[in-house]
Amino acid sequence: MIEQHQKVTLNLTDYDFDVVCPDRAILDELLDISLEMERLIVPDFFAGPFGESELRSDFEMQSKSSLCSVD
How many CA atoms lie less than 13 Å away from 30 in the CB half-sphere? Predict the structure, then answer.
């Protein structure tokens, strides 16, 4: 309802809002913990072609979107 009002009535897009993302140090720590958990829980997947590199890539994308909040 709010989103529709902002997009339709106010003609705003997702890019019209300031976002606040965690500091790089916090993101690095979260990534390290996440990678370590994946390595321990699913070692075969982690070592495979879609393992660590894919996880790092996905985390980088999320660190600029879903890990952020609207200010």
Answer: 15
Query: Is there a contact between 38 and 31 (Cβ–Cβ < 8 Å)?
Result: no
User: Which of 1-10, 27-36, 59-68 tops mean pLDDT?
Assistant: 27-36
* Separation between Cα atoms, residue 40 and residue 27, nearest integer Å: 20
CB-based contact 23:68 (threshold 8 Å): no
pTM of whole model > 0.85?
no
CA distances from 39 to 19, 29, 53 (A): 31, 15, 12
- Cα–Cα distance measured from residue 26 to residue 21, given in angstroms and rounded to the nearest whole number: 10
pLDDT beyond 90 at 1: no
